[in-house]
Amino acid sequence: MNDMNAKRDLLLVGSVGLKSAEEVFRTAADALGTRLHAIPDGETGDRAVWVIWNRAAYDACDALEPDPAEVAAGGRITSATEGIRKWGGGDQLEQGKQPPPRLRVKPGVAPAAIAFGPLGYVQTTLESWETFRRLRDEGAIPAGTRFQVSLPTVAASMNAHIEPGSHEAVEPALERRLFEEVAEICAAIPQDDMALQWDVSTEMGQVEEVRAHWFPDPLQGATDRLARHCEQVPAGVELGIHLCYGSYGNRHWKEPDDLGNCVRVFNALAAKVSRPIHWVHMPVPIERDDAAFYAPLKELRLNGAKLYLGLIHLRDGVEGTRRRMAVADKFAAGYGIAAECGFGRRPPETIPELLRVHAEA
Fold this sequence. Notes:
This protein is α/β, with parallel strands linked by helices. The chain has a single domain (3-360), classed as TIM Barrel (Alpha-Beta Barrel), CATH 3.20.20. Helix content is 37%, strand content 13%. It has 13 helices and 10 strands. The chain has helices spanning 3-6, 21-32, 55-59, 68-73, 121-138, 154-161, 167-188, 202-207, 218-231, 260-272, 291-294, 317-328, 351-360, and strands at residues 10-11, 38-40, 64-66, 103-105, 146-152, 194-200, 238-243, 279-283, 306-312, 336-339. An 8-stranded parallel beta sheet has the order 1-10-9-8-7-6-5-2. The chain has a two-stranded antiparallel ribbon with strand order 3-4. Helix 2 (21-32) packs across helix 5, helix 5 runs parallel beside helix 7 and helix 6 crosses helix 7. The longest helix is centred in the middle third of the chain and has 22 residues, at 167-188. The model is unreliable at 1-5 (pLDDT under 50).
């Protein structure tokens, strides 16, 4: 094994397809140990479907109703880029069905009248934190490891639950509610025990011009909003950014041409945020072992953040991972490695082997 590669830091993006948070914590700690600076709870159970699981919180908003166009279509209307979606969890529909129609603002309702109740992040996060703290106290998780909270942004939740024509009206109320939950989480967990990662998928879709946006400049509009998200995280909590191209059906919603848009988004965001960003994760498709894909990293301004490249793939294992790293090494130094996205929907029996690849790459 290459000694330099063996010392690379590792990141688990978020979801892990195991049965419970405790199983995720124990399995990750056993397999990867101190090479993980923080461990997420794996978003297990219904939460494996990321932004779909808490649909009931959106249905409960009195200012919203099912969008008539999507009702007439029998469910969520998707673009060719997005591809066919199937319901993955929750009580609203049988698993595997077309996702339900998204919601719109009821006619005559002013944006100021929109209000959301609990979104569910506080309860699930604090339950996982108690498990994490117990296991770390017992020695099952290495001392000094942080508890990683991975959350979807407002844009991601709107993309899943709100029809595009209502995004501008809904955004202030949803942002207010999400930020309240972030504040509650950060008040309940000691800051030096916690890391918070924003999962940035819809914004990358806006920059790539395959997701809806009402602001004229997608890069400026997306990073202005991301900056507001980042500023909600207290200074003592470590902050991470996962730049995401999706993994639904084990594919991206668009294959990135190169890392150029990831670099542009992070550079613009870092210039707007007053607090430190501790890491940024960028995905690498399995076939990209060409210099052109990584070349934009030469323009990356990390401002103290750690770069993680998501170039670990189970399909070609350690050999393929090292091949991609050999090219990336020409354009970046000191980066950590990760999978290209979470692996919450991956069959559980594949997780040990995928973690082995993390450990040996």
